[in-house]
Amino acid sequence: MHPDFDSNSAHLFERALEVMPGGNSRETVYFPPYPIYAARGEGAKLWDADNVCRLDFVNSFSSAIHGHCHPDIVKAVQDQVAKLVCVAAPTELEVELAEIIVDRIPSIEQLRFCNSGTEAVMLCIKAARAFKGRPKIAKVEGAYHGTFDAVEVSQNATPDKWGPDNAPSPVATAEGTTKGVMDDVVVLPLNDVETSLEILNRNKEQLSCVLLDPVPARMGYLPSTSAYLLAMRKWCSENDVVLIFDEVMTVRGGYNGMQGEYGIVPDLSAVGKIVGGGLPIGVIGGKKSIMKVFDVTQPGRSRVPHGGSFNAHPVSMAAGIACMKLLDHDAFDHLARLGEKTRQGLKEAFSIAGVAGHVNGHGSMIGYLFTDTEPQSFRDIVNAKISGKGPAIFFDHFINNGILPLGRGGMLLSTVMTDADIDQMLDVALAGLRKVREKVGGMHANV
Ligand code: PMP
After folding, report:
1. 249 Cα nearest atom in ligand 1
2. Separation of CA 324 and ligand 1 centre (Å)
3. Do β-strands 410-412 and 403-404 pair in parallel, antiparallel, or remain unpaired?
4. Which atom from ligand 1 is nearest to the alpha carbon of 121?
5. Ligand 1 test: best mutation among 249, 251, 364, most atoms within 8 Å of CB?
6. Secondary structure of residue 273 in the 3-state scheme
C-alpha cells in the first residue's frame, strides 16, 4: 500500500532527502508523501523497491516505447558496451540512426544529435535565430518544451499573471528568469487562430521562429487543431519565420511523427525520447538550408557552434537503432488501436461511474482531466479543471491496484502491451472512479 512509512521506498526517500533537495533529480517523478522507487522492469511490468508489480503506463515519460528491457535493445546495448562505450570520434552507428530518422520524419533532411529534448529544442531555437538574425521566439501558453529559460516562459502561467486573452503576458516559470529573456518570448493561445495571427503580425519584424508541440503533453494531450497548425504553417511561410515542431514526445504519435499524421511539415523539428531506445538522446533536424548553421566544414567557422561530450553517444545510437527497427508500421497500428481502446474505455468508465471527465490524446498518448467541459486551450483547461481530492483518490487507487499512470492524469502505452493489459487497467479505472464518486461525488462544476 502507498503510503506505507515502513516501506523501502519511504526509507529510500528519507535517505534521499538528506543528499538531494526534494529527494531526487527531477521534480516530475515526485508525488506526495514519497515517490515509489523503481527496482526492475520487464515488458509492460515494473517492480518497485518493495517488489510490488505494476503495469507501467508511463514508460519513462514515453522513452520506453517497447516497455522494459526489450531483448533486442538489451542485446544491442550489451554488444555495444562490450565494444566501445564512449569516444571522441564519430561512429558508423551515428550515421545509421541519422539515416533512419531522416527517412521517417518528413521535415528532417539533415540532423544532429544531442543528449536530451531540452537541448534539442534549445538548439532548434539557436539555429532559427542565427539563420534569421532576429531575437524573438513565439510559443504556446502552457506548453512544455524542457527546462531552459526561454521555453519555460508561460509554461505554468496563472490567471493572476497571464494578462488579457488577446495578448497573453509572458510569465516566468523559474524565479530569476531575466527581463531580457521574457521580452524575447511572444506567447500564443493554442487553437485560437485569429488571436495568434494578430499577435504574430504585431511581432513579425523581430520573430525568428514559432515553436509548437502538435499535441502538448502538459495540456493533457490536447491535440492542436489541423486548422491551427495549418494557419501557423502558412503564416510562417508568408512571413519568412522558421516553424519548429517540438516532437520530443509526439514522435511516438505515428510512423512519420505527428507531422506525418497531420500532413504538415515544419522547417525544423526537435525529436527525442523514443529515438534513443531508452537511453539519453535529442535530435535537432530540418531543412538543409537552416541546418547549415551547424556546418563546420564551411569556410570560416560554424555559425552556431555545437559540441557536447556525449553527443551521438555510441550506446544511445545502438539502442536507438534497435528501437527504431522494431517500430514498424505494424507496431504503430498496434499502438493506435490500443490507444483508441484506452480512450474509449476511460470515457465509458467516467460516464458509468458518473464522474465528470474529459479524455484526449492521439495514438499511444492519452490524457484525462476531471472536468465537465471540453477545453480547447491552456486557459480553458486551467479554468475548467475541477480541483479537490478526486484526482488524488483516482491516482492512489491506480498505484494501489497494480497500475502506474502519469501523475498529471494520462498514459503512454508501449508496443508490448496487450488487450488484456488495457482491460485490466480499465477495470481498475472504473473501480477507482466509483470510489471517487462515493467519496467526493461526481465533481461536476457545481459540486
Ligand atoms: N519537449 C517536450 C514536448 C517534452 O515532452 C519533453 C520531455 N518531457 C522535452 C521537450 C524535454 O525533453 P528532455 O526531458 O529529454 O530534456
Report:
1. 5
2. 19
3. unpaired
4. 10
5. 249
6. helix
The whole-angstrom distance between residue 357's C-alpha and the CA centroid of its chain comes to 22
State in Å: Cα 59 to ligand 1 middle. 14
Q: For residues 399 and 152, what is the distance between their CA atoms, to the nearest angstrom?
A: 30
Cβ atoms of residues 291 and 127 within 8 Å: yes
- Write out the three cell numbers for 130: 542565427
DSSP string across 119-188: HHHHHHHHHHHHHHT--EEEEETT----SSHHHHTTTT--TTTS--TTSPPP--SSTT--HHHHHTEEEE
Cα–Cα–Cα angle for 73, 79, 83, rounded to 5 degrees: 140
Ligand 1 centroid to residue 419 C-alpha, Å: 28
C-beta of residue 139 within 8 angstroms of C-beta of residue 188 = yes
Backbone phi and psi for residue 210, each to the nearest 5 degrees, phi listed first: -115, 125
120, 114 Cβ separation under 8 angstroms? yes
Nearest CA to ligand 1 atom 14: 117
Q: What is the pTM of this model?
A: 0.97
Which sign, positive or negative, has the C-alpha torsion 139, 141, 145, 146? Answer: positive
**What's the grid cell of residue 64?**
520506453
Burial class (CB in 10 A: 0-12, 13-18, 19+), 441: middle
The Cα 436–Cα 443 span in angstroms is 9
Distances (CA, A) of 161 to 50, 157, 377, 386: 43, 7, 17, 20
Ligand 1 environment, Cβ below 6 A: 61, 116-118, 121, 144-146, 213, 217, 246, 248-249, 272
pLDDT tens for the chain, residues 1 to 447: 899 999 999 999 999 999 999 999 999 999 999 999 999 999 999 999 999 999 999 999 999 999 999 999 999 999 999 999 999 999 999 999 999 999 999 999 999 999 999 999 999 999 999 999 999 999 999 999 999 999 999 999 999 999 999 999 999 999 999 999 999 999 999 999 999 999 999 999 999 999 999 999 999 999 999 999 999 999 999 999 999 999 999 999 999 999 999 999 999 999 999 999 999 999 999 999 999 999 999 887 899 999 999 999 999 999 999 999 999 999 999 999 999 999 999 999 999 999 999 999 999 999 999 998 999 899 999 988 777 899 999 999 999 999 999 998 999 999 999 999 999 999 999 999 999 999 998 876 544
Residue 295 to residue 284: CA distance in whole angstroms: 13
Atom of ligand 1 nearest to the CA of 146: 11
Cis before 216 (ω within 30): no
